[in-house]
């Protein structure tokens, strides 16, 4: 009932390696982790600057890590909190299936369809040259959009289902941008956990 799936779907994209596991966690385990993380994670809402104006980030975030390495993106610097038990459990499961080690997890809480994440790449220098990013989805399904930086007609979208795991690696972050767009549909909350390895620079 609480199985972990290893049924992998390889997305065929130029200049990228992308693997999608639609039922990484069973329904029961996905529900359990969502409820625990919603109430135990120390969520925060940072300010971001867009075209010279300060706005509240359109989602809540949290950073946990096994070291004290900070993580910076969009002029936001986050200092990690120590891993809690539930995050360590999830980290172990993802490391076992991906065969990669991770030091840090950035969590996003999308409260409704107005919460989003704009076009970006996970290419910060702390992540190294060809980072492996493992993204676990809990709660409401949301569309995930990719677009190639150079090839204008190379676009793709994928519905990230609850309990699914998306792994991006290879040259993905050099050549592609991705986003979680807003939606006008009335939808429930979603928690996204993006595991990464932060190198000392």
From TrEMBL:
Fe2OG dioxygenase domain boundaries: 101-199
GO molecular function: dioxygenase activity
Signal peptide: none
Listed PROSITE patterns: FE2OG_OXY
Keywords: Dioxygenase, Oxidoreductase
Protein name: Alpha-ketoglutarate-dependent dioxygenase AlkB family protein
Pfam families associated with the record: 2OG-FeII_Oxy_2
């Amino acid at each position: 009932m609480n199985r972990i799936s290893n049924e992998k779907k390889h997305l065929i994209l130029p200049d990228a390696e992308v693997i999608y596991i639609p039922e990484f966690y069973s329904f029961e385990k996905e529900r359990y982790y969502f409820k625990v993380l919603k109430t135990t994670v120390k969520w925060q809402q940072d300010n971001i600057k867009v075209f010279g104006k300060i706005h509240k980030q359109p989602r809540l975030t949290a950073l946990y890590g096994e070291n004290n390495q900070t993580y910076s993106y969009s002029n936001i610097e986050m200092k990690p909190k120590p891993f809690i038990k539930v995050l360590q459990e999830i980290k172990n499961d993802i490391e076992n299936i991906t065969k990669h080690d991770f030091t840090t997890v950035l969590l996003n809480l999308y409260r409704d369809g107005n919460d989003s994440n704009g076009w970006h790449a996970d290419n910060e220098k702390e992540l190294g040259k060809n980072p492996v990013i493992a993204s676990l989805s809990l709660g409401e399904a949301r569309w995930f959009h990719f677009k190639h930086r150079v090839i204008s007609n190379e676009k793709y979208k994928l519905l990230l289902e609850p309990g699914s795991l998306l792994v991006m690696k290879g040259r993905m972050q050099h050549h592609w941008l991705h986003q979680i767009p807003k939606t006008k549909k009335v939808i429930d909350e979603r928690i996204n956990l993006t595991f990464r390895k932060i190198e000392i620079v």
